[in-house]
Each structure stands twice: as C-alpha cells, then as structure tokens.
Amino acid sequence: MNFLSDRLGFGADYNPEQWSPEVWRDDIRLMREAGVTIVTLGVFSWATVEPEPGRHDFGWLDEVMDLLGAAGIDVSLATGTASPPSWLSRRHPETLPVNRDGVRLSPGSRQHYCPSSPVYREAAVSLAVQMAKRYGAHPALKLWHVGNEYGCHVQECYCDVSAGDFRDWLRERYGDLDALNAAWSTTFWSQRVTDWADVLPPRTAPTLRNPAQELDWRRFSSDALLACYRAERAVLQELTPDVPVTTNIMGMWEPVADYASWAADFDIVALDIYPEPKDPAAHIDAAFFHDQMRSLGGGRPYMMMETATSAISYRPPNRPKRTGLNRLWSHQAVARGADAVMYFQWRASAGGAEKFHSAVVSHGGSDNRIFREAAALGAELATLSDVAGGRVPAEVAVVHDYANWWALELDARPGELRIPERVRAHYAPLWHANVTVDVVPPEADLSAYKLVVVPNLYLCTDAAADGLRRHVEGGGHLLMSFFSGIADECDRIRLGGYPGAFRELLGLRVEEFWPLSDGERAGLSSGGSADLWADHIVPEGAEVLAAYTGGPLAGLPAVTRHAYGAGTATYLGTRPDEQAMRDLVADTLRLAGVAPVVAGLPAGVEAVRRGSRLFLLNHNDHPVHAAGADLAPLDVAVLPLRHDPAKGA
Fold it and tell me: Where would I find the Glycoside hydrolase family 42 N-terminal domain in this sequence (predicted)?
C-alpha cells in the first residue's frame, strides 16, 4: 500500500526553525502554490527541540505541524538526532568520534558522534520517545525519518568504546579466538591473538593492515550505524505501530554502509541523490542508483527524499542545472520506481555551511526560474496519480555487493580496480540498450532473471557461488568479468586455481593475472581493444569468443563462453573498450532472449516501463522522435502502454 495515499509525493526538506512565524505562513502559501504534498520536517532540530538536557520546547513545532496539517500537507517527521546539540558534546566529550590516527573530532559541523557510544544512543532514543509521544497521533504525520544520511561524514570511529563494541561484534560473529585467528589468517606476520584485549580497530600502523581485519571493521562499522537506526526505530514502532519508519540513504559512489543489509529495516527505502549537472553521463549513474533503491525494497516503490533543484553547494564550480534538467531527472526517478520527489531544501538558508545550496524558494524569493519550474513539476506529477505504487519489471540483474567493494579496493591487489568504474562499465551498456535492470546482492534469488551480470566479484561466499551456478544450470545466462571468485568472505584465497569459485561454471582456468600499465592496450580479435587487465585464460571446455591480438598475452583467449546445464556463462578476462563492451552485452542479451523496453530508439533516449505507463526521457541537447512522441531537448513524455513496446516504435 502506498503510504502517500495513492498519489505521487512532491515536496522538500523543511527547516522552519531557521525562520520566523511570519515566514512559516508565507511558506505554506507558496507550498500550496507549488503543489507540495509532503515535507520532511525537523531533521536538524535537536538543539531547538531540546535546548537543555531533558527540557523540551515543542511549541514552535506544534504550530508548524498544525499549519502543515491544515494545508493538507503530509509530514515525514524526523527524530532530529542526526546532529547532537552542543550540550551533549560538552557534558560527554566521549561521544565525539575518533579518527584512525587517534584524533578526537570536535563539534561545530554535523554527525559528530561515535556510533557505538551508549551515551549518544541513549540520548537519541530519549528524544525519539518524546517525539513519538508528542506527535504520534497528529493527523499530518505520515512517516518517521530517523537520523539523516548515516555515515555521510563519520563512517567509523576508532575510540576505545568502539574497540570494545568491535570485540563484542567479533565474538558474536566467530565465537572464539581460534575461529577469529583462522578467519583473519593471523599466522601471517605473527599476528595471532591470544586475548580479546589484543583485538583492536585497524588504527594507523607502520604499513599494510591485516585485510581481513579491515574488512570486518567495515562490516562492523556499517552494523554500528545500523544499530543506531534500529534503536530509534524500535521505540517508534512500539509507540506508533501504524506509522512507517525509514531513513535516507545516499546514492553515491562511496561505500558508506552495506545498504543491502539495512533494507529489511526500512518500511520504505528513501534515497538522497545529487547528480553532477556538468557530467554528461550523470543520468546513467542516477539510473543505476534508482534501480538499486527499488531493488533494495524488493521492487516496491521508494522515495527520492533529497535532490537539488539546481546548484549543489559542495561541488566546485557550483553550477546550476540547465532549464529542463530538474524536470527530466525527477521524471527519471518516478519512471524507475520513486513515489515521491523531494528536494533539499524548501527555503534556501540565510546562513550556515549550505547557504549557497539551491532550494525551491531562493534567497530572492519565488519570482524566479527555479520556483516556476518546481511548481510546474508539482502540477505535472499531480496528473500521474495512477503511477503511484506501480512496479518496474526487469529481466536482468546486476550483482553489487558492499563487502566485495570494500575488499576489492584494499591495498596490495594485483591491479588497481575501483568498483564505481567497474559497475558503470557493465551497467552503461544495458542502459544504452534500453534494458531495465534490478541491482541485487550476490546471494539474492536469481530465478526471475534471464541474465545476471557480475562485475568483478572478487569476494564471494559459497552461497553466492552456488546461486550463480544454479541460475545458469537452470537455463539462465551469466556475464561475468575478471578477478571474480578469487577469495572467500574472509578474504582468503580459494585454492585450486583461479577463478576459484567459478572454474567449473566458466569452463576455464586463469593461470596468471596480467594487469596492464596506464596507456597499454591489447587488440581483440572480435574488434576493438582492451586495457587495464588481461587474464591468462586456459579454456577447460569454454568456447573462445575473442582473443588478444596484441599485448603480453597475444593469441590467448580474452573472452569466452561456456555452456553449462541449460544456460551459458560468458567471461571477460579484460576490460573491452566502450563499443566492444556494448557489442558483447548486446550479443549476450540476444542469447538470453532479453528485449529492450522499446526497440529502435535514438541514442540518448531512455525508456522505462512502470505499471501501465511508458516513460520516454530525452537526455540529448537536440529534439528527437521516439515511440510516436516528439521530444524537445531534455524533454519527457509519459505515455499509456497500448502495445508491446519491445516490438518497436
């Protein structure tokens, strides 16, 4: 059921504590003019709501809640715990986070708390209780918003409290020190521990840290942040069981937390995303994150809880969005499963660190391009109520895993691989082919997909390997890239030859890794060339699709395909150039029987089917004709599905 009452939500992050009551009333008037249906309220209000320990001032918030409710505007009410007040840091400096070098960070910014601190958690839960008791029955309340962008600034704390919490986490994971020593391969470099007191966070050390320790530390740090969210969520569920609970997570190429392990705790997934206006491929990255958020919720609609109307304050240069770009990118979110489009923030701040961040209402007021475009979008979204709650079908899955991300990018690997580039290289050809995908963890149920794409799954559990094998054996198709299946979940090499977890499935053995130097390229017999990496592949049943025509492995296989059970597994032992990668993906899609959402579209036009609607989005700077629609530059068309779009325009 759509908690937004069968309509698409439209609104912004609202911070009325920055303004006088006279401005609040003007805000309500402008919100109604712009078609706002929902706001996120009170994200950074802790110091205003609780100016002293245990003394609460709810009068201003009561008034704002009543004003919004009377205007028919729903509220996603924050617990306000994202940024602790100064009195907490002063009374309890031990709540402040400590970095890897042992330096305790100071207040004066935001997120200045240790996730493992029991003092912080107790104070945060206490405030959440007061908020729930005060507003749990308020008619405007539709959603609880816990914290804010967990881990955006402080992903880890290395203090002694965190060290103790880490040890407790490891005891639960491994049981005893023998199991921990085995998991961490501590016989190397004489790192064996015989007392739990000797187990520490991976603080600054003379040289390389134990990679398994680093990996478990990232897992623990993600879980410590999740524990903060869960502590507040538990009391909210107890006191207001009928109000859904979420927090906003970030669509960004930074491994902040293992969002896949968080998803079960969200009643609705909420995304913050800030594509770069001057990046010509920003919409492809954005499409990936929208697909990921939808997939985290099991295909259910999600919220785009934060994006920018125009300029983003923390990026130099602070360039605005061109006319039409905000509308285009907002429709992209709706097309890919968002049931709400919301901005940070409603009214641009007059002071503070983000005062030059764009908002719906600018420093000069509402008589400007940004407000007019936002109001027009609000009116347009109001006509798409039938889209709310709609699903987005996908026959292809891209495997993406945070533990693999952390492990792959640790030091002392054969080559310098970065997950953002590696995922983009596999996702972009699917986007250009107008094929919608789900983004799933390695151990997901793959039975619904015709094709599974696996970018560089270095770290692989037995369960994930078995799931991928069953997928292909049962008639599915697989496209996998190099340096996959190499290590288990503890970053221990799978012995018996590379790629350990997938040798039988892929029908090959990799004898050696040959990372290529910057600027070094190897030709491919199928056309084009490759760089970055070259596997020395020895086929063991696999068919050779392409061989190297140059470079250190000239004449040896570069791309293979293996029939396994009722399906096939295609393997890339290198990084093909963009066109060669598109050609290979297109060939694999044909083999898997995956059709585009709409065939024959012009380049740069994105087509997404959601429910009974077809979204066409023109990311070009020139007009196009697509699927019977004339699209201006950066234009959008939302059409009823009257035919099978895969059969062509």
Answer: 13-383
